[in-house]
Amino acid sequence: MKKMFFGAFMALVLCGCSGEREYLSYRGMSMGISAKSMCDSLQQQGLAIDTLHSGSTSYVLVDTVARNFVVTIFQQNDTIMDILEQYTATYNDSTSNLWQARHDEFEKEFGWPTMRHSGDLHKEAFYKNDKGTVILELLNTYSPTMSIRYSVKSME
Fold it and tell me: What is the phi-psi region of residue 125: left when phi exceeds 0, alpha when psi lies from -120 to 50, beta otherwise?
């Protein structure tokens, strides 16, 4: 009886410890897929490759529906390292509202962030878990911008 219990326990442990890493999700896709596959999927969602700025270490995709954002996929040997979304706007309220909406969304998923800056014109929030790090930054200066960096690395 003890051997059967021990065998069942070991089987349960081995099944639960497959060693596969979990990755952050970007637009419903795991960052564990290949950079090329991620790029192809984003193209199907209406983004276009900016061939002038894409290179061997990154793909740069631009919005074709005038939502004013750019997505950069940083890769190494077709493995995604980081994804950077950059939004621009013509007035501060639009980026502030977008920042707040994404902040609330990430807070639900990751918990309360570490705030590096928390002013009216510059906010920077770090969300971290065992899957990676998300950095949400707002710069409302002469040219209002907001960026979101998804990284497979754990950063401080």
Answer: beta
